[in-house]
Amino acid sequence: MKKTYKIDVDCPVCAQKIEREAAKLEGIESACVSYMSQKIDIKFKEGASVESVIRELKKRVKRVERSAEVYA
């Protein structure tokens, strides 16, 4: 399953860091952050709990960039 979420990120480097961190999460097959459109496209692994993955993603985003926010 693939979903797109709005993300508030301040710089392209931060977007890259968030993308790399998201791709490491269990339950995410791939992730792509667009600084220009302020969106994150996530392809979830089969059987993944979307709610749990998003909850963990939000925590990791805050660790990478405190001012960044994922709206899900």
From TrEMBL:
Domain HMA: start-end pairs: 1-69
Pfam family, one: HMA
InterPro entries in UniProt: HMA_dom, HMA_dom_sf
GO MF entries: metal ion binding
SUPFAM superfamilies: HMA, heavy metal-associated domain
UniProt superkingdom: Bacteria
CDD domains: HMA
Protein name stated in the entry: Heavy-metal-associated domain-containing protein
